[in-house]
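Now for my pick.
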Amino acid sequence: MRARLTYAVLAAVLLVYFVLVGSRGVLLIQQGTAITVPFGVVVLVLPFIGLWFLWHTTRFARAAGRLARELEAEGGLPVDELTRTPSGRIDRDSADAVFVRRQAEAEEAPDDWRNWFRLAVAYHDARDTPRARKAMQRAITLRSGETGLKAAD
């Protein structure tokens, strides 16, 4: 719940920032000089890029959350079996061992979104965020293909 609240607050702050930046772009365009108009257009594009990124990130997070709730209801969420350092960080060797098992499961049944979800968690635990995101996207796509829903980007 805390993560959701933090995400919502940060998204709201970003939206306010986008409005402020957009208003500055409009002001620059309204000045009407040869320098301020192109600069204003460029400044005006930045909030749209930010909104696009925020939209896609939110869709991805919501889709992953739906999969997590579904997997939890099935009793299929991965169990935290990782060794941790005294400071609480995940031990790299422990994460790598779990990753090897999760990768083998995904290779054995590549069309099962549950295996890809668990592989994404293992990638995350191994601190490989780009591959974690790709594996989670694969899980979302596979699951949406089963239900006919549109996958998140």
User: Anything to note?
Assistant: The chain is about 75% helix and 0% strand. The radius of gyration is 21 Å.
